[in-house]
Write a structure and sequence with these properties.
- By secondary structure, the chain is of the alpha+beta class.
- 33% of the residues lie in helices and 30% in strands.
- The longest helix has 16 residues.
- The mean pLDDT is 94.
Length: 165
Amino acid sequence: MIACKIEDIRQFTSQLFVGTLFDSFLVREAQIVTFNTFHIDGRVRKEYYTDQELEERHIGELSAWESVKPVCFGLIKGKKLPGSFRIVFQLGADQTEAFLKQRQLPVRAEQISGLYLNIRYEEGSLYCVTGTSVNFFTMDKSLEQEWDGEVTELFRKNNIPVSMD
């Protein structure tokens, strides 16, 4: 687990709410505090969709950020900054599989409950914290270290300045 403080909040939030950098992440949950507190549960209510829609759109258990982002952006845009927001992203199953293969890690995708990126804005500061969850006991920290490196590299490649807390 690493905790990064985002140095350029305006640039990062533009990437987050307007750009496409995070679109492929899945949303576990989001909370946005403005004039009210808004909670978003990222779990898809499959009964909302037809079987055809579920299949054609490849809709899984969690919503992609790309589909939730406009709602969240609508809640924060305006002249006043939000009081706070918190978003928990999870890497999708296909992306997790590709990540494991690319990094040649000795873990199977079905052993991973989640690779997470937690974004938290409060009191004028923005932080990103990585997290991993596996469904077995291990002392090996290579998965966690590789995920931390993947997120650090994502920020570096996209010119997002961070400092480690």
